[in-house]
Amino acid sequence: MSMKISGAPCCWGVDNPKNPYLPPWERVLKEASEAGYSGMELGPYGYIPMELEKVAGVLAENKLNIIAGTIFDDLVSEENFQNLIGQTHDICGMVTKLPQPPQEEGQRFKTPYLVVIDWGHDGRDYAAGHPDRAPRLNKEAWNRMMDHIRAIAKLAWETYGVRTVVHPHAGGYIEFADEIDQVAKDIPQEVAGLCLDTGHLYYSKMDPIEWLLKYKDRIDYLHFKDIDRKVYDEVMNEKIRFFDACAKGVMCPIGKGVLPYEDIHRTLQEMGYAGYITVEQERDPRNVETSLRDVKASRDYLASVGFD
After folding, report:
1. pTM of the full predicted structure?
2. Is the peptide bond before 99 cis (omega within 30 degrees of 0)?
3. Which tens digit of pLDDT belongs to each residue from 195-222?
4. Closest by Cα among 256, 198, 255, 257 to 233
5. What is the torsion angle, in degrees rounded to the nearest 10, for the CA atoms of residue 76, residue 93, residue 101 and residue 31?
6. Residue of 42, 84, 89, 191 with fewest CB within 10 Å of its CB?
7. CATH H-level superfamily of 3-304
């Protein structure tokens, strides 16, 4: 069984496609290839254009496959539901026609995946990382969000053959231990899997190894990141949005922070995890000149501890 490392545009500061400082997507793909990656996520909806032939050509030029597309949006509001359905059609219709990596032995579902993340709520954004003070959804709103996720997953699988994975994310309404447990109860394994993120788990006061083991039968895909403990301690004492904390450098190259990746590698081997793992290092896109250096450092470090 092998664990293949892939990349994501957020390592170049690409989280909000409307940010005026984003680098050209062609540069991101070129530098990912230069750093030694063979797989990439599509990034947030609206960043890489929905122009199939053009995007496929740039991927082929850089010897890159597509690992996943992402819905990073408000999953709660009823008025946003049709927008979510439209994104599902667009993203799945695109990623299934782009260059694909082979399915690894032991990998439960073939790439590409549809990563689904709740986002866009000020009350939760400013409470990221603070389970004790973050407001929770009431039962009606939570159930509506679960209905939306189930509908997205059903559409993605039945129409496009794309496996949906739910990504708990700092600053969204699926972040903390109680919410991850509830998602696992409300979204059956046959409907969608989990994409756990080591950095978000740590940021939100959970032990990544403990949670990898807890949901080893539900995890179809993983994200890796690392955290600068000094910056983390500082931002935990501020009223700050999650991505503003990232702009301060709370996420650092893998191997230079607090997460124990040798132990994580050993844990994943014991779990029998096989397939793809995507490196992320959210940052201010105005610091893009150090992105290539950092993504290469993360890739090289993970290779040194046993990842492919």
Report:
1. 0.98
2. no
3. 999 999 999 999 999 999 999 999 999 9
4. 257
5. -80
6. 89
7. Divalent-metal-dependent TIM barrel enzymes (3.20.20.150)
